[in-house]
Amino acid sequence: MSVKPPETFNVDRLPTPIGTALLVTDAGGVLRALDWEEHEPRMKELLRLQYGAVILQDARSPPDLRSALTGYFKGDLDRLKTIKWRVAGTPFQQKVWNALPKIPAGTTMSYGALAARLNAPKAMRAVGHANGSNPISVVVPCHRLIGANGALVKYGGGLARKRWLLEHEGVTLKTASTRAV
């Protein structure tokens, strides 16, 4: 019986207005994970769940990736579309993660509405679980999903970051619409 060798990925740090982002790329420079520095243990666990054993080595991310993310944080929201990314996960997770970038910047969608769009109208909780397992924050914009009542709920990077990202993209939020869950 052969054991699969560990995946080796590069990890870089990028300062942003909302904290230091960890950028995980493969040998081809494709983004595999983006999370926040203080959530590194969670990011490593998501990578382990998706790829098995993983080795992270410090290395600079490709200049086009850094430039695209820096441009996004400076207000060029379309720059996210230029980033090459790849994720592993269940077929349903893949379906959710591939649907998230289709939610335009400056708009939000409820978990139930995304479930309906995926032809699984009763799968709101499954959409929420897949959204919470998204290893590529910001680029695969899980922050654009909100509660049916407009409440900001469940963001792995913290609700303050979710609020900042949505407002940065032009979403007007009600101050009473944040619920810590």
Overall description:
- The structure is a single chain.
- This protein is α/β, with parallel strands linked by helices.
- The protein is 32% helix and 18% strand.
- The strands form two sheets. It has a four-stranded mixed beta sheet with strand order 3-2-1-4.
- A hairpin with a 2-residue loop joins strand 1 and strand 2.
- Helix 3 (91-99) crosses helix 5 (124-132).
- The chain is globular and about 50 Å long.
Strand order of the largest sheet: 3-2-1-4
Q: What average pLDDT do the residues reach? A: 93
Which series of helices and strands comes N to C? EEEHEHHEHHEH
| Structural class by helix and strand composition | alpha/beta
Helix content: 25-40%
Number of helices: 6
The profile of the biggest β sheet is: 4 strands, mixed
Strand content: 15-25%
Q: Got a strand count? A: 6
Please state the CA-atom Rg, rounded to the nearest Å.
16 Å
Write a concise synopsis of the structure shown.
With 181 residues, this protein is α/β, with parallel strands linked by helices. 32% of the residues lie in helices and 18% in strands.
List keywords for this structure.
single chain, 181 residues, alpha/beta, 4-stranded mixed β-sheet, two-stranded parallel ribbon, 6 helices, 18% strand, globular, disordered C terminus
Q: What's the topology here?
A:
Layout: E1 7-16, E2 19-25, E3 31-36, H1 40-51, E4 54-58, H2 63-73, H3 91-99, E5 109-110, H4 111-117, H5 124-132, E6 145-146, H6 159-168
Parallel strand pairs: 1-4, 5-6
Antiparallel strand pairs: 1-2, 2-3
